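Lab notebook, bench 4. Still working through the backlog of constructs that have no structural model yet. Next entry is a single chain of 98 residues. Request: give me the structure tokens for it.
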Amino acid sequence: MTKAEVIAEISTKSGIDKADVSASLEAFFTVVKNSLADGENVYVRGFGSFVVKHRKEKIGRIISQNKPVVIPAHNVPSFKPAKVFVDKVRKASIEGPA
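Model written out:
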């Protein structure tokens, strides 16, 4: 499902204009990105958590040159679905699509 399809479905189910849904969705994405960039996690009860994970510095390898290279420590965004979310997906995979 694409972002446009999500917007259309929300618009249909809620009766809100597509432009307003699109603006709200974009605002949500912006808030999540800015919060994660500031090191602040975002928790959406019943859906999941957008969190920042720290990766330690490590040694990688350039295979073509067989040379070690240092990969610096860095932060990466991550999503951890809520238990309710996971259970619903599991149930749907067992029973088939709704």
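Notes after review: The mean pLDDT is 94. The longest strand covers residues 48-55. Flag for follow-up if needed.
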